[in-house]
Amino acid sequence: MDLQQVRYFVAVFDHGSINAAASAVGVAQPTISQALRSLERELKAPLFHRIGRGMVPTSAGYALAAPARRMLRDIVTAAGAVPDADGNLRGRLDLRAHPAVSTGLLPAIIAEFHRRHPKVKVTIAAMHDETRAPELLRNAACEIVVAHLPLPPGDEADGHAGADGLETAVLDTQEYALALPPEEGSPPLASLPWKDLDAAMAVVPQGAAHAGRMFAAMSARQQARRPAVVLANREARLAFALAGVAPTWIERSMTNTALSRGARVRTMEPPLPAPYGLVFDRDSLSPAAAAFVGVARQVAARAGAAAQDGAAAQARDATSRNSAAAGDS
């Protein structure tokens, strides 16, 4: 089995067509087609159903996908295990991240990692369903997943494996707030008890582990309410809320942006902080991935210490103000 054949097979598997696969790997379409035919002859089994211009994997194609990914991953790991002449790590690191936790600390971690290891290429793809995290790791689609923690239990019947044997590294916590359209006389920022939430929402399809906790905190009436609109694009949520279509959930980190654009924001009471972090299989990490885990833990520790210092400073300021007020009386 030729390595290029494997590479082209995985490209077609991932992109769903020969045309898209050829664009992704930078070769001509006939090259992909010829490689697939050769591979199918060698394996004596069709790997795809040709449907129009699309390519749908056969049962043999699905069976080959995981071993093929592991083969390509092993090549990348082997190449990255040898530093360059100056001792720098090199190679490629593939991450998958749920969009809700792609902000926060992740950009800071990527920046610090790139500063220390500039010759490692980092790619980040979206992962919308966190139940797929163990499957993605074990099939070598990526080396590290960034997701809410703990991961939801997998469903073997649906092909979603559990998280047994995988390690996690908590980075930070995420909280969610409610963004509503502007309204005359309503405060821009306030709190709202979960039981008082009573509105059809603009939502994105569930796939985050934390969504179940949020749903459980709502009243039975709210749980039974149908969404006003379901959006495939998370970035469109705030625009729909500002246009008056429906309230929507935003990450707390988006609060200032939402307020600056005229939205009203309601922080939910009681708060439901959602831990998030890295998920990985330590035994299969490449040198670059192991270094990334180390950098992530250091950045998270610094951020945690800074947050504690900030909270302590606020507490001292509040004590000083109260003492001054008591003295004035």
Could you explain the architecture of this structure?
The protein is of the alpha/beta class. It folds into 3 domains: 1-80, Winged helix-like DNA-binding domain superfamily/Winged helix DNA-binding domain (Arc Repressor Mutant, subunit A, Orthogonal Bundle), CATH 1.10.10; 86-173 and 276-329, D-Maltodextrin-Binding Protein, domain 2, CATH 3.40.190.10; 176-272, D-Maltodextrin-Binding Protein, domain 2, CATH 3.40.190. 43% of the residues lie in helices and 20% in strands. The protein has helices at residues 3-15, 18-25, 29-43, 59-80, 106-116, 133-138, 211-217, 220-224, 237-242, 255-260, 287-328, and strands at 48-51, 54-57, 91-97, 120-126, 144-148, 167-174, 176-180, 189-193, 202-203, 229-230, 248-251, 264-269, 274-280. A 5-stranded mixed β-sheet has the order 4-3-5-13-6. Strands 8-12-7-11 form a 4-stranded mixed β-sheet. It starts with a helix and ends with a helix.
